[in-house]
């Protein structure tokens, strides 16, 4: 770990580079009655081109192996939503490091998503990462071909090949709920060492001069470890923070059991972070948990929840308008279970939809709801047609992103308390 003097030198290098570079900016436009806030993320760059402003709280698109799951780039245009950043989890693109390097124009253009700002996360919020494979010299990620171990040099070489608009620095977030004090200490210390080394290489890289760096706040479910990680990470010249290491492992039941225990730790952690930098929380988070995290001050999430619902043949029924619009769920009344074990979706494989010729959600403006019925998608699911998942993904992404639009609108009006589950 760097000494205090070394950190001052690192910060001076960072400030000098900021004078020459064009990197991401964040400002708070409006503060809610709790810690929720309406923010503006600006000056994201891809190569030498500036991408427009993005208001937060914001849901980033989720990708796998360089594409939005189930959607070709042409079909993605049917989403009919503004361009937003895309999360590229490192495990699913680690095999593209050398091809992207040879291509020389970044991962976004390489996979045909050049219009979208790229954000690289260390782990995949959907796929579980086996525990016990990190050490002081490197971090393990799990691709379709098995375990890939990356040290700082390899990781930063990958980042230079991918040229993202912003990225999460290499970290050790392997902290299950039952982690020992020793494991938590290693998580915090190793993450800080990796951060310092990555920052040194980042500041020397001409290819990353317009790229923003996000440090990771780790420490599992230990308030003390979280506090140490947050206070030390804040001292480093980072552009934002990823609250990592809750180790949910893609388990709906595990998430429900741990979220209530995580929430007070999340609240306390966020109070230690500066208000002028964005905060990210990854995970397959349903709407009620997202709302609670926003009230803690989280700004950026990912759309992995919409993907997870699609994978099990579900259709999201999250509020997409304020007031009594036809077919939409009144915000003040909250959401009710809709013929499903899960609270915010319907299971279109269920036989009750066999002759239901209404759209998934009356009044929904997505392509799927405008063109197809529940009965048709039910038929596609039960005959194992790929089109079922294409149509569900279009609807679920549209519905989930619209939910975030509602949240931003309510914060701007000072009425977020109307949104209750």
Automatic annotation (TrEMBL):
Residues 37-419 form the tRNA-guanine(15) transglycosylase-like domain. Heterodimer of a catalytic subunit and an accessory subunit. Belongs to the queuine tRNA-ribosyltransferase family. QTRT2 subfamily. Non-catalytic subunit of the queuine tRNA-ribosyltransferase (TGT) that catalyzes the base-exchange of a guanine (G) residue with queuine (Q) at position 34 (anticodon wobble position) in tRNAs with GU(N) anticodons (tRNA-Asp, -Asn, -His and -Tyr), resulting in the hypermodified nucleoside queuosine (7-(((4,5-cis-dihydroxy-2-cyclopenten-1-yl)amino)methyl)-7-deazaguanosine). It comes from the Eukaryota. It is found in: Cytoplasm. Its main location: cytoplasm. This is Queuine tRNA-ribosyltransferase accessory subunit 2. Its cofactor is Zn(2+). It holds the Pfam family TGT. It comes from Limulus polyphemus. InterPro entries: QTRTD1, Queuine_tRNA-ribosyltrfase, TGT-like_sf, tRNA_ribo_trans-like. Signal peptide: none annotated. Binds 1 zinc ion per subunit. Zn(2+) binds at residues 364, 366, 369, 395. The gene is LOC106461260. Keywords: Cytoplasm, Metal-binding, tRNA processing, Zinc.
């Amino acid at each position: 770990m760097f000494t205090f003097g070394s950190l001052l030198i690192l910060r001076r290098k960072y400030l000098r580079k900021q004078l020459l570079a064009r990197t991401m900016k964040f400002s708070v436009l409006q503060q809610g009655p709790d810690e929720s806030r309406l923010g503006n993320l600006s000056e994201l760059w891809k190569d030498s081109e500036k991408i427009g402003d993005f208001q937060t709280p914001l849901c980033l698109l989720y990708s796998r192996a360089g594409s939005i799951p189930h959607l070709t780039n042409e079909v993605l245009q049917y989403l009919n939503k503004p361009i937003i950043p895309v999360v590229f989890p490192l495990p699913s693109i680690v095999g593209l490091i050398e091809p992207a390097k040879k291509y020389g124009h970044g991962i976004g253009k390489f996979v045909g998503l050049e219009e979208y700002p790229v954000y690289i996360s260390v782990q995949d919020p959907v796929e579980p990462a086996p525990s016990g494979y990190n050490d002081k010299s490197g971090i393990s990620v799990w691709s379709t071909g098995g375990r890939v171990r990356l040290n700082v040099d390899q990781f930063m070489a990958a980042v230079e090949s991918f040229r993202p608009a912003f990225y999460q620095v290499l970290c050790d977030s392997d902290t299950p709920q039952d982690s020992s004090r020793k494991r938590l200490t290693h998580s915090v210390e190793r993450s800080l060492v990796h951060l310092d080394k990555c920052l040194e290489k980042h500041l020397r890289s001409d290819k990353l001069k317009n790229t923003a760096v996000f440090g990771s706040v780790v420490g599992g479910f230990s308030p003390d470890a979280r506090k140490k990680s947050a206070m030390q990470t804040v001292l480093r010249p980072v552009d934002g923070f990823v609250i990592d290491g809750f180790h949910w492992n893609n388990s709906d039941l595990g998430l429900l059991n741990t979220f209530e225990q995580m929430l007070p730790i999340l609240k306390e952690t966020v109070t230690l972070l500066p208000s002028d930098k964005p905060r990210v929380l990854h995970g397959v988070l349903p709407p009620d948990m997202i709302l609670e995290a926003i009230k803690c001050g989280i700004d950026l999430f990912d759309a992995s929840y919409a993907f997870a619902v699609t994978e099990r043949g579900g259709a999201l029924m999250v509020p997409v308008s304020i007031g009594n619009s036809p077919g939409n769920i009144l915000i003040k009344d909250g959401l009710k279970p809709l013929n499903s074990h899960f609270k915010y979706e319907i299971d279109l494989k269920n036989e009750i939809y066999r002759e239901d010729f209404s759209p998934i959600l009356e009044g929904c403006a997505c392509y799927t709801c405008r063109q197809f019925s529940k009965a048709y998608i039910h038929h596609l699911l039960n005959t194992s047609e790929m089109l079922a998942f294409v149509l569900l993904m279009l609807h679920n992404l549209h519905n989930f992103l619209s939910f975030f639009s509602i949240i931003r609108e309510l914060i701007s009006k000072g009425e977020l308390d109307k949104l209750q589950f």
